[in-house]
Amino acid sequence: MNSPSKELMGTGSMQTLKDEMAEVTAEMEALDTGEDSKNNPKSKQMSIGRKKFNMDPKKGIEYLIDHGLLKNTPDDIAQFLYKGEGLNKTAIGDYLGERNDFNQSVLDAFVASMTSPT
């Protein structure tokens, strides 16, 4: 019975989706119980930004910039992605793979981060 959904999504895609759901659930639980989040609004905003990024990378970056947690520079965004704390690797790849000049600059800075860590 599961074969039609496997044919539509592919076995790997289904596992990726399950992994992403588990990650988001864990992050939501951490938000509910984390003392840091309750005492530090910036930490809570960062967690929200990460969740938004995992669902829609562009909106997540915009949220973090709008809340002053990230500068709108290729280097700052690249460092955020390189550290990758709580970020879905597929979402990082989607963001870096966008075909526009700014995202290409972020990709260049991201690659530079990999070759010479700060």
From TrEMBL:
Pfam families: Sec7 (PF01369). Gene3D superfamilies: 1.10.220.20. InterPro entries: Sec7_dom (IPR000904), Sec7_dom_sf (IPR035999). Residues 35-114 form the SEC7 domain. Residues 29-51 are annotated as: Disordered. One of its GO terms (biological process) is regulation of ARF protein signal transduction. One of its GO terms (molecular function) is guanyl-nucleotide exchange factor activity. PANTHER family: GUANYL-NUCLEOTIDE EXCHANGE FACTOR (PTHR10663), MIP16918P (PTHR10663:SF402). This is Cytohesin-1. It comes from Chionoecetes opilio.
